[in-house]
Amino acid sequence: MNAPLATLAIELPDAAATDALGARFAAVLRAPLHLQLHGDLGAGKTSFIRATLRALGHTGPVRSPTYAIVEGYSLAPALRASENDSRIAFYHFDFYRFNRDEDWLDAGLRDHFADNAVCAVEWPEQAGELLPPPDLALHLDYAGDGRHARLDAFSERGRECLNALASPAAA
């Protein structure tokens, strides 16, 4: 992966702080966007996505897609990339159980990475180099009882999102 265009580091002292980051992320999120989530088991990747979806108005369950591989959500047009989009597809992937790079291709998931979609991918390293490059990568690492979050932007779309997230208005 190339060097990031921009980076933002945030300390998350507790689960509520992770939820707040997810809500802040929802406020600046626009499709299309490919987000990769990195971190050990239990680091808060699914919790971050759950908080993001809740802030976007999703009221139903938000399950970890560990066994299903992908969970899809249809969201209101606030995320839309253009005025022509009616609803936005938000796909939450978990590639933890993949054993080889080709598994994600064999599962037929390439088409999910469409122009009007937000794709959030847990365990992207399990798909190897075949997965499209991310716009943003979120790294969650244990820091005592809390977490340390680092967001890296790898595209202009990712940098726009990161800059908006870093602005005081997003806090």
Short descriptors:
Rossmann fold, tRNA processing, globular, alpha/beta
Secondary structure elements and pairings:
Layout: E1 6-12, H1 15-28, E2 33-38, H2 45-55, E3 70-75, E4 88-94, H3 103-106, E5 117-122, E6 136-143, E7 146-153, H4 156-166
Parallel strand pairs: 2-5, 2-6, 4-5
Antiparallel strand pairs: 1-7, 3-4, 6-7
Helix pairs in contact: 1-2, 1-4
Please characterize this protein's 3D structure:
This is tRNA threonylcarbamoyladenosine biosynthesis protein TsaE. InterPro entries: P-loop_NTPase, T6A_TsaE. It is found in: Cytoplasm. Its main location: cytoplasm. GO terms for molecular function: ATP binding; metal ion binding. The longest helix is centred in the N-terminal third of the chain and has 14 residues. The mean pLDDT is 84. This protein has a single domain, classed as Rossmann fold, CATH 3.40.50. The chain has 171 residues and is α/β, with parallel strands linked by helices. Strands 1-7-6-2-5-4-3 form a 7-stranded mixed sheet. It is globular. Helix 1 packs across helix 2 and helix 1 packs across helix 4.
Give the strand order, joined by hyphens, for the main sheet.
Answer: 1-7-6-2-5-4-3
Mean pLDDT comes to 84
Number of strands: 7
Strand content: 25-35%
Structurally, the number of domains stands at 1
Task: Note poorly predicted spans.
Answer: none
